[in-house]
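[recover] target loaded
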């Protein structure tokens, strides 16, 4: 049984280094994507505010306000 368990333990240190490198790369990528999502949310909020200001600046109707509702 011990031999079977040891077969699942990585003994090659190069594989460990590759995993550490890949893990670091993926963490950077996730951080980049999270920053992009935050930037896109901020841009969306800004555009929504501009649109609301535009709609409220003229005669507001229910049809105009309905345009701002999510689908």
């Amino acid at each position: 049984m011990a031999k079977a368990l040891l077969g699942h333990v990585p003994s090659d240190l190069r594989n460990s280094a590759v995993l550490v490198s890949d893990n670091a790369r993926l963490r950077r990528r996730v951080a980049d994507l999270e920053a992009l999502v935050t930037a896109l949310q901020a841009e969306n909020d800004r555009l929504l505010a501009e649109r609301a200001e535009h709609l409220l600046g003229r005669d507001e109707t229910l049809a105009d306000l309905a345009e701002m509702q999510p689908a």
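[recover] notes: Residues 15-67 form one domain.
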